[in-house]
Design goal:
- The protein is an alpha+beta fold.
- The strands form five sheets. Strands 1-2 form a two-stranded antiparallel ribbon. The chain has a two-stranded antiparallel ribbon with strand order 3-4. Strands 5-6 form a two-stranded antiparallel ribbon.
- A hairpin with a 2-residue loop joins strand 7 and strand 8.
- The two termini are 44 Å apart.
Length: 122
């Protein structure tokens, strides 16, 4: 991984990307705090931009407030859908269940013993 210097903060970072808007190589922190800031079209506060729509930039708080809501396929509550037709709570629960199912059974039972061949004497 290439280590480069951010042209805004002058710190050496692992991930520095060229930004066409300001024509500089900058780190993610500088992008979020310096470049990706605009007045929100809904709340009119200067904040980080989460989404750009025809009305203008939208901050993360307003983005979560204005998302369309649908009934969750699992719990049927009307919420903002995260993925696969599930609300965030149901989606996260399903992901946890998947991870638990992936945990493999131990290879050996606790009563089994592996016999290794004896090593030759030096």
């Amino acid at each position: 991984m290439a280590v480069e210097q951010c042209e805004l903060c002058d710190k050496v970072k692992d991930r520095v990307h060229y930004n066409k808007k300001i024509e500089m190589r900058i780190c993610r922190l500088c992008y979020n705090t310096e470049v990706c800031i605009a007045e929100c079209a809904f709340c009119k506060r200067e904040k980080r931009v989460a989404l750009r729509i025809d009305a203008g930039p939208v901050c993360p708080c307003c983005y979560y407030r204005v998302r369309e809501r649908y009934p969750c396929d699992e719990c049927e509550r009307v919420k903002a859908i995260q993925a696969h037709g599930l609300c965030p709570a149901c989606y996260q629960r399903k992901e946890r269940e998947k991870k638990k199912a992936l945990v493999k059974e131990p290879i050996l039972a606790s009563s089994e013993v592996i016999a290794f061949p004896a090593l030759p004497a030096p």
